[in-house]
Design brief:
The complex is a heterodimer of chains A (277) and B (463). By secondary structure, chain A is mainly α. Chain A is 54% helix and 1% strand. Chain A contains 11 helices and 2 strands; from the N terminus they run αααββαααααααα. Chain A starts with a helix and ends with a helix. Chain B is built from 16 helices and no strands. The chains are: A mainly alpha (277), B mainly alpha (463).
Chain lengths: 277, 463
């Protein structure tokens, strides 16, 4: 392939030299037949080289994309990805609409936030897709898709598979490595529920803004009952306070249908977490 | 004399031009809504989320350019052939099939908005070529019908020469490469590999051939440029564009799961891609100066052409080059910098050419002369072009800030976006200025005003 690369580069410079010489010469003396022949000859030669590159690229792409792990779920996920026109907000492999984040590395991001727990990450991602945040006055949100769980699961499979494509090192590692949002999964039931309900998809605890606000010290700002009510169904609290979202500049939180018991465990975890950080 | 007005018997060009102008105006309106959603995310939510608006924005872009190319081809092929096409009736059918097909696809998109149901039958969800598969086949059928009409007209009336041949090759390439967007690949990397065959080989391939041929025909008309030299110019331009552009596709194959030799190929070839565009600028400015003595009443159409060539170089050449080398693209890929480049390059390379074509053809179709009242048109020219400049600069700065914060410092995307509000505000202002311009342009397209001199003569005659 190295041969073909340098051959094509040499070819390019040969044609360029020819053209520059021709452009500089008085064009009246240049027979058009020669230009015509060079044009068609050049197009054929460069197309042939391109076909050669394509032939080789398609031969190695199954390895660079781990095509052997492309399960029917991944395939369905790609179809769902297309059906919901995700590309016209997000980018994937850097191509798309730049209105929302690039999703090439979305799977590892969710895994990171779930403290390395892939099952929790998967759950969190599905929850996210089925309950996407609505936009607020100053923060973007997702359309109301009412996505089936099958679609959500297959999109997760698709994004997980996509994240393993060998992209020649893109996106580049930031110059300063950001601190992980959740260092490690804690053993408390609240922490596990925090991960499995996908809270970490939007919130960090003490590592700054993600999509929702940083939850460090949230126990100081709200009482336990409000927190439980809010985690169970934020719409109830929004209606009661006549304010949505509660924090200026963030999207409103979606209803995740967390049971009151689970919500209490999460609230306790958040209150206790403040004490540690 | 090359620039004598041929009495246009064929009217179908006008249909396509009006359609192109209306769709271009819609494109700007959708763009304005999308730009506003960057600032007010709840605008039109949940009825019309950003992805639908954006899909309409980029699809109307493609459709307005296609309608412009088709209209320009019909008009100029007819004019070259003495004013008429081989079959005006077939061309009319072509127009109604084209417009009907586009209408059906748009109705499908709107059905998503109205019903809230997402379906692959309504949108294929692949950027720029979102039209669903059934529409793809209809598009191919209409394209073949169009090619057949042009083939007939060129063979039987206009005659084959270097320029008409290049035009038809470009149009054929346009249809041919669309086929690669009609295959489903489960592998998203392979999907993007062939998706670029449509997008890149259109924009930096087939469309450039069409544009070169249309430019040449306009140069002959508006600048009384010698035909022989125009033909040579087409071969030089088209040759350079394709020799660098075919493998220049490599700049899209850096990070999508393709082998790393594409970094070398894409880097070398696309680094030279600005060269033909720069040559075009030199040529256009030289021709403009050299031929200033060649009086042509349609100064406005000449301005759109020359400015188009300059912005083509700025957008595709400079803004493209700024991010085409792998070492730069690694950081800039997938940011607002790409959006800045896309906006100015499409406008300079294609939209301005089509507006030039329309301004060239309109007075001939309307009044049978090259004289008309150009005052409104000049306002449209300056408003649209400065609106685009504002927009491009704002997005460029947004892109650079985004690269620094998101790519270099690793700040999360939503937080980065919260710092870009100022640039999105400025971009929206640019968009408003552009929309003002296109309103004036539309007014000209539907009610071009006759030249003052003609009006006076008319009044005298009536008195």
């Amino acid at each position: 392939m190295i041969f073909l690369v340098w051959f094509s580069v040499l070819l390019l410079f040969a044609f360029l030299t020819l053209y520059v010489v021709w452009s500089l010469r008085a064009d009246e003396r240049l027979p058009i037949a020669r230009l015509r022949a060079t044009f068609f000859g050049g197009v054929i030669v460069f197309s042939a080289v391109f076909v050669g590159f394509t032939w080789h690229t398609l031969r190695v792409m199954p390895q660079s994309t781990h095509a052997d792990q492309l399960t029917p779920a991944v395939r369905d996920g790609k179809l769902a990805w297309q059906k919901y026109v995700c590309i016209d907000c997000h980018t994937i492999l850097g191509n798309g609409a730049y209105y929302a984040s690039d999703l090439t590395q979305s799977w590892p991001r969710f895994v990171d936030r779930a403290g390395g727990d892939e099952i929790a990450a998967r759950k969190a991602m599905i929850t996210w897709l089925q309950h996407p945040p609505a936009p607020s006055a100053s923060s973007r949100g997702m359309p109301r898709y009412a996505m089936s769980s099958t679609d959500a699961e297959s999109i997760v499979a698709f994004l997980r598979w996509t994240s393993k494509i060998d992209t020649n090192g893109w996106p580049p590692k930031p110059l300063r490595e950001p601190s992980p949002v959740l260092a490690a999964a804690s053993s408390s039931p609240g922490a596990a529920l925090f991960a499995s309900n996908g809270c970490a998809g939007c919130h960090s605890i003490g590592q700054g803004r993600v999509i929702g606000p940083d939850l460090a010290g949230v126990g100081k700002r709200f009482d336990r009952d409000t927190m439980i009510a809010f985690i169970s169904d934020p719409q109830v609290v929004y209606a009661r306070e006549r304010k949505s979202p509660l924090n200026e500049g963030y999207p409103a939180m979606p209803s995740l249908s967390v049971s009151p018991n689970d919500a209490a465990a999460i609230a306790d975890y958040l209150i206790e977490k403040r004490g540690q950080s | 004399m090359n620039n004598t007005v041929v009495a246009p018997q064929s009217r179908v060009g006008q249909h396509f031009f009006m359609f192109a102008a209306v769709v271009m105006a819609l494109q700007l309106v959708f763009g304005l809504v999308a730009a506003a959603q960057f600032i007010w995310p709840t605008l039109l939510f949940p009825a019309s989320p950003f992805n639908i608006v954006r899909m309409l924005h980029i699809n109307t872009l493609v459709v307005s350019l296609l309608a412009g190319f088709i209209g320009g081809t019909y008009f100029l092929v007819a004019e070259e052939g003495g004013g008429a096409l081989h079959s005006e009736r077939a061309a009319r059918w072509n127009f109604w099939l084209f417009a009907g097909g586009i209408g059906a696809v748009v109705l499908g998109y709107l059905a998503i908005v109205v019903t809230g149901r997402w379906s692959l039958w309504l949108s294929e969800g692949r950027e720029y070529i979102e039209a669903p598969r059934w529409a793809d086949w209809a598009i191919i059928a209409v394209a073949l019908f169009f090619l057949f009409n042009i083939w007939q007209s060129v063979s039987r009336r206009t005659g084959w020469n270097d320029i008409t041949r290049m035009l038809v090759i470009g149009l054929g390439g346009l249809s041919f490469f669309y086929l690669f967007g009609m295959v489903f690949f489960a592998n998203v990397a392979v999907d993007q590999y062939f998706w670029w065959w449509v997008i890149h080989l259109w924009v930096e391939g087939a469309w450039e051939l069409i544009a070169a041929a249309l430019y040449a025909l306009l140069l002959i008309r508006l600048f009384d440029f010698p035909r022989e030299r125009a033909a040579k110019y087409v071969y030089l331009e088209a040759g350079l564009v394709l020799f660098t552009g075919i493998l220049g596709i490599g700049h899209h194959y850096y990070w999508i799961g393709t082998p790393s030799y594409w970094l070398t190929v894409g880097g070398v070839f696309s680094a030279i891609e600005p060269l033909p565009l720069l040559l075009m600028v030199f040529d256009a400015l030289r021709i403009d100066r050299e031929r200033r003595g060649v009086e042509h009443p349609n100064r406005l159409a000449r301005a759109w052409i020359v400015a188009g060539v300059v912005l083509h170089f700025a957008g595709a050449g400079l803004w493209g080059f700024a991010q085409t080398l792998p070492s730069a693209n690694r950081w800039s890929h997938g940011t607002q910098l790409t959006a800045a480049h896309g906006h100015i390059a499409f406008y300079g390379a294609y939209s301005m050419l089509i507006i030039a074509l329309i301004y060239y053809a309109l007075p001939r179709l309307r009044f049978g002369t090259d004289e008309y009242d150009q005052r409104r048109g000049w306002w449209a020219f300056w408003l649209m072009t400065s609106g685009m400049a504002i927009m491009t600069l704002a997005l460029t700065v947004a892109g650079i800030v985004q690269i620094y914060l998101e790519r270099m410092l690793g700040m999360p995307f939503p937080e980065v976006q919260s710092y870009l509000g100022l640039y999105y505000d400025i971009r929206l202002i640019g968009g408003v200025v552009m929309v003002l311009g296109i309103v004036l342009f539309l007014a000209d397209v539907f009610a071009l005003r006759a030249a003052q001199r003609h009006l006076r003569e008319l009044k005298l005659a009536m008195a």
